[in-house]
Amino acid sequence: MRRVAGIDVGGTFTDLLLTEQDGAGVTVRLAKVPTSIANQAVGVVKAIEAAGVSPAELDLIIHGTTATTNAVLERKVAKVGLITTEGFRDVLELGRRTRPRAYGMTGTFEPLIERPFRREVAERMNAQGQVVTPLDEAAVKREAEALAAAGCEAIVVHFLHSYANPAHELRAGEIVRSVWPNDYVTLGHALLSEYREYERGTTASVNAAVQPILDRYVQRLQGDLSAKGFGRDLLVMNGNGGTVPATVVAREAAKTVMSGPASGVMAAAATLAQSGLTNAITYDMGGTSTDVALIHGGIPEVSAELTIDYGLPIHLPMVDVRTVGAGGGSIASVNAAGMLQVGPHSAGSEPGPICYGRGGTRPTITDANLVLGRLDPDRLTAVQAKVSLADIRAIFERDLAKPLGMSIEEAAAAVIRLGNVHMSGAIRMVSLSRGYDPRDFVLFAFGGAGPLHAVALARELGIPEVLVPARPGLTNALGCLVADLRQDRVNTVNKPLDQVDMDEVKRLMTAQREGALAVVAAEAAEIEETVVIHGADMQFRGQTHLIRVPMASPDVTREEIQAAFEAAYFHRFQVRLPEIRAVLVNLVTSVIGRRRAFPLASLLDASARAADVAGAVIGERQVHADGRWWPAKVYARDALQVGATITGPAIVQQIDATTVIEPGAVATVDAIGNLRVKA
């Protein structure tokens, strides 16, 4: 018996999918427990135990975590010092020509590294990698000792143009390590060998700021698991959709930012592959936020221009997920102007929505769904003390309906509609803004709350079909199970394409491939196939933003790169610029170690299926939609057989999510258990 657990820690719940495989086939166990905010490791262990096994019985754990993301967003990070080129200590604070608020010269920004801990030393490389000023080695040692004495837990060495020649950074790193009290030393070029000193510096500062936090968390988790007998492999999800061994994950801790959202996108890609689909917009609505991403041609879009918070760009390859502060726990209120507002504040898991009975007193999107009959008050997950529907309606009347001059139902419907507006905007960002028509995609809806809103969103955006996977509330945990091992390498060239040395291109890409292959090969026991993907980040001269262009191999010709870039640019902007020179900015190589395919049909419990659709009906209740109440049948998701068809209005319930089939929509169960809804 081989047991593998995928565990995802979200802002509200910690989800687990456990597979047990032997000669007879694959069986699945599920668990969903409240996230332990103070120490996520506690929730992870509780989820394993809730699945009815002990850690000692597990052969492999793949873990997606929000530890680093939350640390940066909440600014609960380690104290970091910086050693940089003389005259450039304020690069991290000056940034680009942006401001915290789009309108008006207001708002403040605090870099992750405070100014007193940003120290300068004499050294200078030019953009061609030639030494202009030699490195002052004595100054490096002196400043490192001063930063350690000042209480800095981690340190960054970030010199100008180190991507072109890292010699000074490498030597400074040796000196720093000789006096630094721990291993939390980040060299800017080692993490990101790209031009743009600001983005390279912020990426390095994020890495240093979360390195001790992630390292302590992983060690604590491994210790808790070991104490209960677990002695096998622990893999951690990276933001690029791949996994890395827990023993080395803290070295490049910044790569785990967006780990949780990326796992859901990887699960979507695996589900699409087994469903015969290639294009989807993924829509993950949880308790705290909503994440959307795009899968085109079966491959998730990856970007190296993520900005996690104002002034904190992280230029590492990551699944391009856009996040909005609209989740089931998003709080609805009437602002000072008398307008309804939904989010960005969330009730989270503590105290949570009113209906969870944990002390929440402010109306949320989840509570609005309950008021409108879209959720069953008797089947909510993790309710601590039951709160009556009458009490929830009274709060809606007091806080929203009366101030807005609406009925309770109208106020609740307005909360849902406004939340949908926020989410549809994020979907447009990942599709229309890149030249993709949403009508050419399916909406892949998951998360505990995603299926509640998906059909309404699809109608608003003109998306013809919604796909709700078999276990929507546990899809991120499934993503951990199906995620491949992945390594990405980036090197800056930053020259007009007609001046690029193509032999140097071949040398760099070959080195990228070999270095990434060596890391992936370390987990050879989990890999069935290795895939290498080459690409280039390009732009026309004078432009700022980059476009990723696929490349067939390191032996690609100059003419092939030019043609691929022009085609990609035209697809994105529908314009050709033959009079402007193309610039080859970065070379990119991704090596993906494909893990064993997960049989998604095993998520279904065949023994629970009813003989026909009527046998899956477990009740009927009134549901509010399109401005009126409708009688709607309620179906048990596990009882729906393959091929079953449902016409809305209807409600489909399961342990991890509820799906609303809007009036007039038609849903069908496909061969692997997905609910396919024609919106």
UniProtKB/TrEMBL annotation:
Residues 522-671 form the Acetophenone carboxylase-like C-terminal domain. InterPro entries: ACX-like_C, ATPase_NBD, Hydant_A_N, Hydantoinase_A, Oxoprolinase-like. Residues 200-488 form the Hydantoinase A/oxoprolinase domain. GO terms for biological process: glutathione metabolic process. GO terms for cellular component: cytosol. GO terms for molecular function: 5-oxoprolinase (ATP-hydrolyzing) activity. It holds the Pfam family Hydantoinase_A. Transmembrane segments: none annotated. Residues 6-178 form the Hydantoinase/oxoprolinase N-terminal domain. This is N-methylhydantoinase A. It comes from Phreatobacter oligotrophus.
